[in-house]
Design goal:
By secondary structure, this protein is mainly alpha-helical. The protein has two domains: 78 residues, no CATH class; 64 residues. It is built from six helices and no strands. α2 packs across α3 and α5 crosses α6. It is globular and about 50 Å long.
């Protein structure tokens, strides 16, 4: 499987699965599906009734990717950025998620479906910064 390939059918199926997962989490637990909030709830150190479903959610994100990597079924684009750049990027994503009171999944999937103006502003900001970053990395910095 090559990550960079686009197929409208697989994109549609993936979007439907993400939407269904968001609806099921809301119906079952009354919670918004945003990884920043889910992971933040695990990292706050408190053991509460939400811990088990949060762990299951995070495992559901990690186990399939790790399994595909182990069997050799996942080949992504070769990126040679180095550990310091990857750590800085991860820190900035986490910092931005906290600063924006949510992550792209929470705002983009759940917030927009609830017609949240704050989520609309966040998603527009995400998309603009993403576009500027791609433009700068490809045209200004010679990537």
């Amino acid at each position: 499987m090559v990550i960079a390939e686009f197929s409208p059918l697989t994109a549609l199926a993936g979007g439907m699965l993400i939407g269904a997962a968001a609806v099921l989490l809301m119906l079952a637990n009354g919670r918004i599906m945003g990884i920043a909030g889910i992971l933040g709830g695990l990292l706050n150190g408190a053991r509460d009734p939400d811990t088990s479903w949060r762990l299951a959610f995070v495992a559901g994100l990690l186990v399939p990717a790790l399994s595909a990597g182990l069997v050799g079924g996942l080949k992504g684009p070769a990126v040679d950025l180095g550990l310091p750049v990857l750590l800085a990027a991860g820190f900035l994503v986490g910092f931005g998620s906290r600063m924006g009171n949510g992550c792209t999944s929470g705002h983009g999937i759940c917030g927009l479906s609830r017609l949240s103006i704050r989520s609309l502003a966040a998603v527009v900001t995400f998309m603009l910064v993403c576009g500027l970053t791609v433009y700068a990395s490809r045209h200004l910095w010679g990537g």
